[in-house]
Design goal:
globular, alpha+beta, single chain, 2 domains, binds coenzyme A
């Protein structure tokens, strides 16, 4: 595992490194690179621009700024986290987690209690990091939030996103970021509690899994919704199937959120085949409320 340091970035030279990192993480569209002068303005006005370094090499970055959200009493402050990116060769080494953990610590020091950001709900690695590792929750599905995107990761599909809520003072989040993180729940735990996946996907020889024709009705306190484990590879191999997944999951999540479900966890298993499943809870239900016979 590579060693890396997390630092706050504040100078024009450091922001130029962030521009270059963006070109490598989201290749293909120069107009989508957030320029150094914007990042500097963010950093000098209550925002946070964080870098992960391997020696003097910038290998990951997270940045965001203070924002507002509306409650019936009026606007409340929050931190809006806008981008998290790690160089491909440094992924799955904990860099993304370490950047978010540093963001969590610094935003707490600013006296805020909520961080929000968006991500594509079909990206299993992002889902696992955001929901399972960091303890963010979600009941907000945004259709085509960024319009047509031109960068290599996003081009061609409607830019639907989850907007997640990271309630940074809650025991749920503190436990996941603490030194003794919680024990993860697996498919086995859910099947012992008699909670199967909401639908069966078709698994052809190609391994490119297909969603069912329609979204089954949700019932019960918990539901498991499967997505592809490597959506970007699936999209590259079969673009029309990727579109099917986008529209199927749009319908499934919108129906679930309208019915009062909340995404509270995410399961990623590599064997016997890679499987990625969102856990949705009706209200505050959790597996510990149910009888687990083991
Ligand atoms: C999303 C991203 C920032 C994550 O960074 P990272 O440094 O790889 O993150 P981490 O290593 O801390 O965590 C990734 C976790 O996902 C796990 N993972 C890997 N592949 C996975 C998959 N297909 N499904 C689910 N989880 C997966 C890893 O094992 C790791 O978990 P672990 O720490 O328990 O081992 C990085 O992949 C990235 O830059 N992606 C492209 C840009 C992007 O999508 N940014 C976010 C939206 S702005």
């Amino acid at each position: 595992m590579p060693k890396f340091d997390i630092r706050t970035l504040e100078t024009p030279e450091e922001m130029a490194l962030v521009e270059e990192l963006q070109r490598q993480v989201w290749p293909g569209s120069e107009t989508d690179v957030v320029p150094a002068h914007v990042l500097l303005t963010v950093a000098h006005n209550g925002g946070l621009v964080l870098g992960a370094f391997d020696g003097e090499k910038l290998v990951g970055n997270a940045w965001g700024f203070p924002g507002l959200y509306e409650v019936p009493d009026g606007p409340r402050p929050k931190h809006c986290s806008h981008q998290l990116g790690v160089l491909p060769e440094y992924r799955d080494s904990g860099v993304g987690f370490a950047l978010k953990r540093a963001q969590w610590q610094m935003v707490r020091q600013q006296g805020l209690d909520r961080i929000t950001w968006t991500y594509d709900p079909l990206l299993s690695r992002n889902a696992y990091l955001n929901i399972a590792r960091l303890g963010a929750v979600c009941n907000t599905y945004l259709r085509e939030v960024y319009g047509e995107m031109r960068d290599g990761l996003n081009v061609g599909l409607p830019s639907d996103r989850f907007q997640v809520d990271w309630w940074i003072h809650t025991p749920r989040v503190e436990r996941r970021l603490g030194l003794r993180p919680r024990r993860e729940l697996t498919m086995e735990h859910y099947s012992l509690a008699e909670i199967p996946a909401l639908y069966e996907v078709t698994v052809p020889d190609s391994g490119l899994i297909r969603p069912p024709g329609s979204v089954p009705d949700l019932a019960g306190p918990l539901a498991l919704l499967e997505i592809p484990s490597d959506f970007l590879a699936l999209k590259q191999a079969d673009f029309s199937l990727a579109k099917d997944w986008r529209f199927f999951t749009r319908n499934a999540f919108e129906a679930a959120f309208t019915a009062g479900y909340l995404v509270t966890d995410f399961i990623y298993e590599k064997k016997p085949r890679p499987r990625s499943l969102y856990v949705l809870a009706d209200g505050e239900s959790s597996l510990s409320d149910l009888t687990v016979r083991k």
